[in-house]
Amino acid sequence: MSPLQLTRAGWLGVACAALVLVAALSVTVGTRAVGWADIGAALTGRTETIGQAAVNLRLPRTVLALLAGAALGVAGAVMQGVTRNPPADPGLLGVNAGAALAVVTGIAWFGLSGSQATIWTGIGGAAVASAFVYAVGSLGQGGATPLKLTLAGAATSIAAASFTLALVLGRNDVAGSVQAWQVGGVGGASMAAIAPMLPFLMVGLLAAWATARHLNMLALGDDTASAFGVRVVWARGTALAAAVVLCGVVTAVCGPIGFLGLVVPHLCRLLMGVDHRWLLPASAVVGAGLLTLAYVAGRIVARPSEVDVGIVTALIGAPVFIAILRRQRLRGL
Amino acid sequence: MQAAGLGAAYGERTVLEGLDLEIPKGKITAIVGANACGKSTLLRTFSRLLAPARGQVLLDGADIHRMPPKVLAQRLGLLPQQPVAPDGITVADLVGRGRHPHHGLFSRWTPADDAAVAQALAATGTTDLAARDIDALSGGQRQRVWIAMALAQQTEVLLLDEPTTFLDIAHQIEVLDLLVDLNRARGTTIVMVLHDLNLAARYADRIVALADGRLHSAGTPAEVLTVDMVRAVFRLDCRIMADPASGRPMMLPHSRHDPGAQHTSLARADRATLKDRT
């Protein structure tokens, strides 16, 4: 192995170790202090004391945070690769907001319920939003430039969020359930709700991994990628589809969680370099760890109440986003 | 390689028309012409970047626009005019990506890949730069790295779109010498768009001159680089002389500010002297 590969493997190892640590923290630490005996008992499935019951709630939430974090991290890395746009993010490009609008519309007007239907609706909304943003961003001279995509995405995000709000405000019957969901959180998790996500996540993650090499070539420009035998439109389409599926599923179940897809790939790129065959797995591990950490932090900072992960990621993500833009001095925008 | 009745268009705008052209195997061919005459477009239709509106591009008799992209990319490489590299990519990583056409969806890196990359780095004199970031290189070094990436692709034909643009004269010579090395060592067929007529005449075995999307002339530098060609293609009066070192023709443009010159007569006189010498 070359020194670069050793460095990458080393960082990936560190990230995995940190992930295990964070997952353990997430199960053992929370708003309620639970003794080790109860934690041990709860892990074997017992729910006799309040402590054991609390741990039994933490488990599926932790699993959901791990899965959602991995999916959003990978989706962010894929979107940044596809658009060659460092500030790209499923949140900023309107994909999450589109998924949210679709789900809320479904709940408010079409009596949407059940996890399968919600997940499909989320994916559909994410797909429509990303297609719309890409179409608008491609208008005019020069095609889909990073600046136009970012502007179109931001505008779409705001528009979709406004529609969502308008829908919810007029409907007292759904406002409560939608509002909790809309902040973005893992609080409502149960193993039964997580199971239907798994096939979608599996497909999305595998498809993303399969496009890693193509993303490496697309990073060199469409002409170069094409000259090296990449079917550019097809490669970009499959990669985007993978990201849309991942975002759609996560948003349908957790609500829109912002900034994770932006911050995680950036962090990984600093550690790993720009090879997507390393960047994507690293984004999965770091994304899972970071979202779980946000879940832990949300329970510690506001004891005895909880802060949803959507708020924690926004608090961490917004300054990091500004730092990224400043560091790039808006290069490429 | 061969173009037969080739026509190309961007939307409604026709850029190339009725082009019949033979690119000899194992030789260096330079494409010259005025701005917007269709040089780059010709190169794009010669690769897979632009589908021709009419006619065909043949590689050993097979239409390249019907070949699977990867199969074509194993045989024919193209270096675009201004390739982009992501921030923070290393030379070794970039050159390694040149192996893309030789890999399937999940295939693993092989010793053959390592060998191809090492060879490409050595051939371009960039072995010492392997661990460096692309951003940290000079323009000349960067261009050599891009050529290394195209070499790692190991194709029998290499197309280059103005490989010397933005380089100072020393780096231009360095890059062109490198291409000649490659052509001699590996027998790679090289087709490049060049702006500088003198460099084209100096380095190419054959020159193709385009004017307004049509073939003006094609042949050896001595056959193509003539006062008439320069006047027809570039609307410029000039003198042609033989380079004392290489014997290749050299173009010296006339200026409106040359002392007392009657351009046409001068040009005619020079053509006569060139003929006398050769």
From TrEMBL, chain A:
<feature type="transmembrane region" description="Helical">
    <location>
        <begin position="309"/>
        <end position="325"/>
    </location>
</feature>
<keyword id="KW-0812">Transmembrane</keyword>
<dbReference type="GO" id="GO:0022857">
    <property type="term" value="F:transmembrane transporter activity"/>
</dbReference>
<dbReference type="Pfam" id="PF01032">
    <property type="entry name" value="FecCD"/>
</dbReference>
<feature type="transmembrane region" description="Helical">
    <location>
        <begin position="61"/>
        <end position="79"/>
    </location>
</feature>
<feature type="transmembrane region" description="Helical">
    <location>
        <begin position="91"/>
        <end position="112"/>
    </location>
</feature>
<dbReference type="InterPro" id="IPR037294">
    <property type="entry name" value="ABC_BtuC-like"/>
</dbReference>
<feature type="transmembrane region" description="Helical">
    <location>
        <begin position="189"/>
        <end position="210"/>
    </location>
</feature>
<feature type="transmembrane region" description="Helical">
    <location>
        <begin position="149"/>
        <end position="169"/>
    </location>
</feature>
<keyword id="KW-0472">Membrane</keyword>
<dbReference type="GO" id="GO:0005886">
    <property type="term" value="C:plasma membrane"/>
</dbReference>
<keyword id="KW-0813">Transport</keyword>
<keyword id="KW-1133">Transmembrane helix</keyword>
<dbReference type="InterPro" id="IPR000522">
    <property type="entry name" value="ABC_transptr_permease_BtuC"/>
</dbReference>
<dbReference type="GO" id="GO:0033214">
    <property type="term" value="P:siderophore-iron import into cell"/>
</dbReference>
<comment type="similarity">
    <text>Belongs to the binding-protein-dependent transport system permease family. FecCD subfamily.</text>
</comment>
<protein>
    <submittedName>
        <fullName>Iron complex transport system permease protein</fullName>
    </submittedName>
</protein>
<keyword id="KW-1003">Cell membrane</keyword>
<feature type="transmembrane region" description="Helical">
    <location>
        <begin position="278"/>
        <end position="297"/>
    </location>
</feature>
<feature type="transmembrane region" description="Helical">
    <location>
        <begin position="240"/>
        <end position="266"/>
    </location>
</feature>
<feature type="transmembrane region" description="Helical">
    <location>
        <begin position="118"/>
        <end position="137"/>
    </location>
</feature>
UniProtKB/TrEMBL annotation, chain B:
<dbReference type="GO" id="GO:0005886">
    <property type="term" value="C:plasma membrane"/>
</dbReference>
<feature type="compositionally biased region" description="Basic and acidic residues">
    <location>
        <begin position="268"/>
        <end position="278"/>
    </location>
</feature>
<keyword id="KW-0406">Ion transport</keyword>
<keyword id="KW-0813">Transport</keyword>
<dbReference type="InterPro" id="IPR003593">
    <property type="entry name" value="AAA+_ATPase"/>
</dbReference>
<keyword id="KW-0067">ATP-binding</keyword>
<protein>
    <submittedName>
        <fullName>Iron complex transport system ATP-binding protein</fullName>
    </submittedName>
</protein>
<comment type="similarity">
    <text>Belongs to the ABC transporter superfamily.</text>
</comment>
<dbReference type="InterPro" id="IPR017871">
    <property type="entry name" value="ABC_transporter-like_CS"/>
</dbReference>
<dbReference type="InterPro" id="IPR051535">
    <property type="entry name" value="Siderophore_ABC-ATPase"/>
</dbReference>
<feature type="region of interest" description="Disordered">
    <location>
        <begin position="247"/>
        <end position="278"/>
    </location>
</feature>
<dbReference type="InterPro" id="IPR003439">
    <property type="entry name" value="ABC_transporter-like_ATP-bd"/>
</dbReference>
<keyword id="KW-0547">Nucleotide-binding</keyword>
<keyword id="KW-1003">Cell membrane</keyword>
<dbReference type="Pfam" id="PF00005">
    <property type="entry name" value="ABC_tran"/>
</dbReference>
<dbReference type="GO" id="GO:0005524">
    <property type="term" value="F:ATP binding"/>
</dbReference>
<dbReference type="InterPro" id="IPR027417">
    <property type="entry name" value="P-loop_NTPase"/>
</dbReference>
<keyword id="KW-0472">Membrane</keyword>
<feature type="domain" description="ABC transporter">
    <location>
        <begin position="1"/>
        <end position="237"/>
    </location>
</feature>
<keyword id="KW-0408">Iron</keyword>
<keyword id="KW-0410">Iron transport</keyword>
<dbReference type="GO" id="GO:0006826">
    <property type="term" value="P:iron ion transport"/>
</dbReference>
